[in-house]
């Protein structure tokens, strides 16, 4: 968390926030970490965009991973913020990212919708 707050520049801030999100994701069964992690959905999306722009300006063929979007969508889903989770998946799809599963972010959206429907039933 301290590295994120002290980060200078979009790339460094993105990497630090990604580490924070990753730790929250690992410990998401602890309500404190679940709450903290899912609060970064908007900040992460903006930082990813800024970081991506900087990286592409230096290395136009750079490839990006969808780890942050995947972990945040899970945190939001687990916190009952289904619309935020779906929005994160859609943003990842816009960037052409993958989540490491066979069905990708599209399949993740379907699973989130199913969880939402079950929670509302």
From TrEMBL:
The protein's name in its UniProt record: Tetratricopeptide repeat protein
The organism's taxonomic lineage, starting at the top: Bacteria, Pseudomonadati, Pseudomonadota, Gammaproteobacteria, Alteromonadales
